[in-house]
Write a structure and sequence with these properties.
Helix content: 55-70%
Radius of gyration: 24 Å
Order of helices and strands: HHHHEEHHHEEEHHHHH
Largest sheet: 3 strands, antiparallel
Strand content: 5-15%
Strand order of the largest sheet: 3-4-5
Length: 308
């Protein structure tokens, strides 16, 4: 690797430190930015292109080179590079006696990503999913997890990282550490509270045995249940209870948001409960509500076709 690209990587490391310590990005987000920057650096090396003083055509060449990647990935590449060059400009970083005067990414539009309406379960399907048959301590754990997830709409990663002290049984709140270490407080309903207390008092000690753990939900290795472990569990329950949809870990989160909005909840409140920084992310669920309204409108008596 030539000297210029060594310098470029040093600048990138400074940028990643800024994201970690000042922007407080999560570990996963930080690794995603690191991966994107490495991909860009590898492209510049391969093409033997100018690195520090990139122009718009260079960024566009990289995005074109990455055309086989998904639209989402290419959008993230551009977002990452735009932020990186903005950092270099604002920090006034000098290389070979010159500074970057303009962001080469500014005039490049983001690749358009078609918004997909999230898949969700109907209320009847949620009832069937939550109809857990009890025979082992793990069944009580699963019931507590599912009820809490549907009651709060938290992310699966947030659920699996919950600790005992995150649950406030006096005020019926859950303290959730979300993306970017942002904390939010979500109310839980009586059903979730009841099964959670039952699990904590009677069955969690059985799962732990002689071991101890600060985490709330325990797996068969007596450690914190993983996101993958939760996904396997929910897929198994869907199969067992005759739910034919292609489920994913966030399906109860999507169901939570959809059912709230269908029943008249305020969009801003749902945004806060879900931990969305941008309300446009929450608005995707209003499209589901609109579709339901259209279907329900078919019951209007004037919509019935006249018989000849």
């Amino acid at each position: 690797m030539n000297h210029e690209h060594v310098v470029l990587e040093n600048f990138m490391e400074s940028y990643l430190n800024y994201l970690q310590f000042e922007r407080k990005l999560s570990f996963n987000s930080l690794e995603s930015y690191r991966y994107n920057l490495k991909a860009f650096c590898a492209f510049l090396n391969y093409k033997q292109m100018e690195s520090f003083y990139c122009q718009r055509k260079d960024i566009e060449a990289f995005l074109l080179y990455s055309k086989e990647k998904s639209v989402t990935t290419r959008s993230h590449y551009l977002t990452c590079l735009r932020s990186y060059y903005q950092f270099l400009m604002e920090e006034g970083i000098v290389y070979q006696g010159k500074k970057i005067e303009s962001n080469p990414c500014d005039l490049i539009p983001l690749p358009t990503t078609p918004k997909k309406i999230p898949q969700y379960l109907t209320i009847d399907e949620v009832d069937r999913l939550l109809d857990v048959q009890f025979s082992t301590p793990y069944d009580y754990r699963n019931k507590a997890m599912l009820e809490l997830l549907y009651a709060t709409g938290m992310r699966v990663s947030e659920l699996t990282h919950l600790k005992i002290q995150d649950i406030d049984f006096d005020e019926d709140f859950v303290h959730v550490q979300g993306k970017g270490d942002k904390e939010r407080i979500i109310p839980m309903n009586d059903t979730a509270k009841r099964f959670l207390l039952c699990y904590i008092r009677e069955y969690r000690p059985l799962l732990l045995g002689e071991k101890s753990s600060e985490y709330l939900f325990i797996n068969n290795r007596k450690t914190r249940i993983s996101r993958q472990g939760f996904f396997k569990m929910i897929k198994s329950l869907c199969t067992l209870n005759g739910i034919e949809k292609d489920v994913h870990p966030h399906i109860l989160r999507h169901s939570f948001a959809t059912h709230l909005l269908n029943n008249g909840a305020n969009l801003r409140v749902v945004q806060e409960l879900l931990g969305h920084s941008d309300i446009s992310t929450t608005q995707i669920y209003t499209h589901i509500s609109d579709e339901k309204k259209k279907r329900d409108y078919e019951f209007h008596p004037r919509n019935k076709k006249e018989e000849n």
